Amino acid sequence: MSETGPDLVVAGAGGGLVAALRAAQHGLDVLVVEASEHFRRGNNTSMSTAMVPGAGSRWQREAGIDDSPELFAEDVRAKTKGQGDERLARALGDVSAGLVEWMADHLGMPLSLVTDFHYPGHSVDRCHTIPGRHGTGLIDHLLSAVRAEDRVEMLVPARLSGIRSSADGHVEAAVVTYPDGSAEDIPTRALLLATNGYGADRDLVAEHLPEIATAVYHGSETSRGDALRIGTGIGAATAFLDAYQGHGALAHRAATLVGWATIMHGAVMLDLTGYRFGDETTGYSEYAAALAARPQATGWIVLDQRIHDLCLPFTDFRQTVESGVLVWADDVESLAGAIGLPAAAGELAEVARAARGEATDRFGRTFFEAPLAPPYAAVRVVPALFHTQGGLVVDEHARVLRDDGSQISGLYASGGAAAGISGHGAAGYLAGNGLLPALGLAYLAADHLAHHIGRETR
Question: Residues in domain FAD-dependent oxidoreductase 2 FAD-binding (predicted)?
Answer without folding.
Answer: 7-434
